[in-house]
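**User:**
Make up any protein.

**Assistant:**
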Amino acid sequence: MTMTRILPLFLFCAFVFSGQFSLAQMDSSDYIVIVRLKTAKNQIRAAEESGNDALAKTLRLETIGTNKEIVRSFRKYLGDRVFFIYSSEYKKLKEGDTQGIFLSDSLVRESSIQPNLDNFYLAFWGNSPGTGMNVIMLLDQDFNETEIWVRTFGITPSNFKRIDPQVKKFCDKISEKIPIYLRKKERIEQKQKKG
């Protein structure tokens, strides 16, 4: 082994075993992502109440189609590390009441789906608080923003083809940025402990 290979290995080992970080803390691959899917309940209800059943049916079908494409794309890039809930179940997730809130890939609630929630992140489409841009955002398990997001350009049935590249970009950013986020979060927690 040449010196150019030994030195980086030595520095890595010295850093890991210096007591600042443990191997478990550095390994961020044990997380899961929960994706919050929109239901469009308010828009559908408004269309029904105004007597526009055709619009309500269209909204319902568009929402189902969009959600199925989102599920397909996230499953493609995150495999079995991704789970789905409807936005209407978000409050239950925050309260820890998770029985029966998770969805199968066909968008059916399945009480048998109970992921380990020891280390999860929540992804959802929304507006960036600072700019109002449409983004896919990621919250940590304390429901704090992680500063991990990807700008989107609106999702409608006419641009389903945009979902997959946006999800891929977001998933790539997750794998790249979660270790950085965890180190930053740990430094903040250490500073708070010191007072």
Summary: The radius of gyration is 20 Å. The CA atoms of residues 69 and 161 lie 9 Å apart. The beta strands are 32-37, 82-86, 120-127, 134-139, 145-151.
